[in-house]
Task: structure prediction
Amino acid sequence: MSARLLWLAAILTVAACGSVQTIDASFAGLKGQPIASAVTRLGTPESRQPSASGTTYVWTDRVRDDTPVPTQKTTYENGRAATVEVMARPEPPVWRTCTLNVLADGAGTIVSAASVGTSAACAPMARKAAT
Result:
């Protein structure tokens, strides 16, 4: 019976991974679409920078990263100080930033999209871009 459960768990894990789209693929999916489509999904860009090759649109997103990290804690369980390592959320919370640069040609078609930031920070923006 436990072998069947293990087999089922393995199949479900593989099936779940098959539908996951990477962050880079979500942003690359913008290529070839009109810039109006990206503005609809992501909101008004923070800046627009015209250049000889087109216009670069920039979006920046900040997310709070309160992922638990290893921390030293002193306890006095036996009347003596003992230092143990525990997982705790950082105080104050860490903020992570994701910047998305989208280049559109003169016709308003997206030529390229590149993000700078951690995957945790870029994930919310990637979900918006993929919808």
Q: What stands out?
A: DSSP finds four helices and six strands in the chain.
